[in-house]
Amino acid sequence: MASTSEVGHAKNIANLNLRETAKRFAPRRYSLNPQLKFYMLPNSKLFISVFLIFIFLQVSCNTLKHGKLGVESAMKYYDHLIQKLDADSISQLYSPDGNMGDIAIGRDSIRKFLSSFKHIQVLSQISKTKSIELYRDGAIQKGNYIQTDVMSEKDTIIVKGEYEVQWVWLGKQGWHIKRMTTKPIK
Q1: Which of 156, 163, 154 is closest to 184 using CA atoms?
Q2: 142, 123, 124: which is closest to 182 by C-alpha?
Q3: Which run of H or E residues covers position 34?
Q4: Which parts of the chain fold into alpha helices (H)?
Q5: Residue 139 three-state SS
Q6: Which of 44, 87, 109, 131 has the smallest set of CB atoms within 10 Å of its CB?
Q7: How far apart are CA 111 and CA 93, in angstroms?
Q8: β-strand 94-100 against 175-185: which pairing, if any?
Q9: With contact defined as beta carbons under 8 Å apart, do 124 and 148 qualify?
Q10: Is this prediction's pTM over 0.70?
Q11: pLDDT per residue over 24-68, tens digit each?
């Protein structure tokens, strides 16, 4: 059995450790201005640093999406949707007043036009950018495309051409096609 002095000594050590721990995690007072006093936890500097790095990354990533890489990425997504021939998704990639080479204007007309190609299966859709010019919340992209299609489950055709896309930046929605024109090449 432990003596009362040993128990008392153990309580004193426990209290001492508790006080040291409390001091270690207690807010420290920093004073930049004698009239202004505020408290900061020891890990607050780390938190503020991580928070500032996070904000920097958010801004820089958004800038990349708003730049040439974002336009190129949007065009690759368009290629993917063309290969799936997903009329709904393709029409949503256009701006609300988007223009598909004067064939269809507006999302509903574009969806209806693309839905008429039920007898075509797109095997591949590849676009290669020649140039991208950025201006404010818009861009003009020019390039070439090659598309391989199967018509009525019989004939395979290869369509080549040049394209020009006028992109518009719609904020959080990203890049959308304002107008796209294509010119076949033999």
Answers
A1: 163
A2: 142
A3: none
A4: 4-25, 44-66, 68-84, 87-93, 107-115
A5: strand
A6: 131
A7: 11
A8: parallel
A9: yes
A10: no
A11: 555 555 545 555 555 555 555 555 555 555 554 454 444 447 788
